[in-house]
Structure formats: structure tokens, C-alpha cells
Write a structure and sequence with these properties.
Elements: E1 3-9, H1 16-19, H2 31-34, H3 46-49, E2 55-58, H4 70-77, E3 82-85, H5 90-98, E4 102-105, E5 116-119, E6 127-130, E7 133-137, H6 143-151, H7 154-161
Parallel strand pairs: 1-2, 2-3, 3-4
Antiparallel strand pairs: 1-5, 5-6, 6-7
Helix pairs in contact: 6-7
């Protein structure tokens, strides 16, 4: 499984309310409908600039703040399969994995907005290539987390590999 897309760059301490404002959850919890508000408090035009397959790139402590799962769902609803950051808030990290988003922890200092970023040219999703040049090796995920991501999230993983049904 490989991912490749245009980088969208954010800084440190991007909290879950920046990802999706709490006020937006009053009308719906539909991740695709809410995707049009992704990062609106930081950049009102951001959601319109995202194409399916694009990749979020951030600094330290991405996803800090409240533990609302909708923050990861909205990223997925926008068609973003990967977030690369220097570090992630613990709850956001687990929510992201459970929602099937690949979260790569590595130094992001050389990545610029608009760069073509590829992740996953090996089995453990640690290779990060920018504009065709491999520049980073991210932290490896345990096999169980890789399986959840490859299944499209925890619910799909449980249905497909653990014999659970609706």
C-alpha cells in the first residue's frame, strides 16, 4: 500500500478544534459533509484546496486538545489518507489509526506546501519521499496498527479479520 499526494503544511500544536470547529458538529456528524470546514479557523479556503489523496504535514503535537474522534473522521472525509508530523497527541494518534488514517511520525522540516510526498514504499510505512527523493524514515508502526490501517479502520478490521458482524 502506497500513498502519494500534495503536501499541505501546518505548524505546531494544531488542536482538534482547528481541525474541525466544535460549532460545526451541531448540524451533522457526517464526515464528508463536515470536510468542507476542515481547518477553516486557520485557513477558510483550505478545504477547497484539498484533493483526495493529499497529505497533511505538521510540526509537533498534531491533534492536541479534546479527544473528539470527529477530528480524525473529517480528515478522512476530505480524502486525506496520511498525516505526517513531528509528533502527535496520544488520543488523536489512536483515533487516527482506528479510523484508518496513516499517521507517520518523523522530522518534517524539509517538506514544503505543494511538495509531492509519497509514503509507504516498504511494508512498514516508514519511507517518506519528497519530490522523488527519499529524505525521511518515519517511526515504524506495530503490525497490528498496520493491519488496522490496511483494513480501512478498526471497524473494518474487526469485521474482516476477527469474525465480527454488524
Amino acid at each position: 500500500m502506497n500513498f502519494e499526494g500534495k503536501a499541505h503544511l501546518f505548524g505546531d500544536d494544531i488542536n482538534t478544534d482547528y481541525i474541525i470547529s466544535s460549532r460545526r458538529k451541531r448540524d451533522t456528524l457526517d464526515e464528508v459533509a463536515l470536510a468542507r470546514y476542515l481547518m477553516e479557523d486557520l485557513d477558510p479556503s483550505f478545504a477547497a484546496s484539498v484533493s483526495p489523496g493529499d497529505i497533511l504535514v505538521a510540526g509537533k503535537n498534531f491533534g492536541c486538545g479534546s479527544a473528539m474522534e470527529i477530528a480524525t473522521l473529517v480528515i478522512r472525509g476530505a480524502g486525506i489518507p496520511v498525516v505526517i508530523a513531528k509528533s502527535f497527541a496520544r488520543t488523536f494518534f489512536r483515533n487516527g489509526i482506528n479510523c484508518g488514517i496513516l499517521l507517520v511520525t518523523c522530522d518534517t522540516g524539509l517538506i514544503k506546501s505543494g511538495d509531492l510526498v509519497a509514503v509507504g514504499s516498504n511494508d512498514d510505512f516508514t519511507s517518506v519521499t519528497v519530490n522523488g527523493k527519499r529524505i525521511y524514515s518515519g517511526a515504524a508502526l506495530p503490525a497490528s496498527m498496520r493491519s488496522i490501517i490496511e483494513s480501512g479502520g478498526l471497524v473494518s478490521y474487526m469485521r474482516n479479520s476477527q469474525g465480527f458482524s454488524n
